[in-house]
Write a structure and sequence with these properties.
The protein is mainly beta. The protein has one domain. Helices cover 13% and strands 57% of the residues. It contains two helices and eleven strands. Strands 1, 2, 3, 4, 5, 6, 7, 8, 9, 10 and 11 form an eleven-stranded mixed β-sheet that branches. The longest helix has 15 residues. It starts with a helix and ends with a strand.
Length: 168
């Protein structure tokens, strides 16, 4: 009887715990355009949990293989968490340091809405939902030399955002 009770409790616990990752942002680039970086939020029971945000490659040029960022890529492209709670994580990407983004501190927020994360950034005094960053450039000695980025997303009124930002 005790064994049956323990099994029922164990099964009930496993069904009550919901853990998932969900993409919040992708970074595409002009060089090797089929290889895309995905940023995902880590969610458990409708709460953001450690490591909160992580990044990985989908290598479209290699049949969709999933790959980790290498050492140099991690330095520039891994999310750097600034502040976190169960409902919102603020993070930045070191790769954006060279860009002057008007009205922005270059910090992204992943906020849970109905248990689904939404990525946003402050731009020109508005909170903009951002779904994609496109980087135009060429392969350089230490990675990609970026000429400009384009942010894609939605304004608060639901209209489409497509903003080109030049490298300094």
């Amino acid at each position: 009887m005790r064994l049956l009770f323990a099994l029922v409790l164990s099964a009930a616990h496993s069904f009550s715990t919901f853990a998932a990752t969900e993409d919040i942002l992708v970074v595409k680039k002009s060089f090797s355009p089929h290889n895309v970086i995905h940023y995902e939020a880590h969610i458990e029971n409708c709460k953001l949990v450690h490591p909160f945000i992580s990044a990985y490659w989908i290598m479209g040029e290699k049949g969709g293989k999933v790959a980790k960022l290498n050492f140099i890529q991690k330095k520039f492209l891994s999310p750097v968490v600034i502040e976190s709670s169960e409902q919102e994580v603020e993070f930045t990407l070191n790769a954006l340091n060279d860009f002057d983004i008007p009205g922005s501190d270059k910090n992204f927020k992943a906020t849970l809405s109905n248990c689904h994360p939404v990525s946003s950034v402050s731009l020109d005094g508005q909170i903009i939902e951002v779904s994609e960053i496109y980087a135009d450039g060429k392969l350089g000695l230490f990675g990609m030399d970026v000429n400009f980025i384009t942010l894609t997303g939605k304004y608060p009124d639901g209209s489409k955002l497509l903003r080109k930002i030049n490298n300094n």
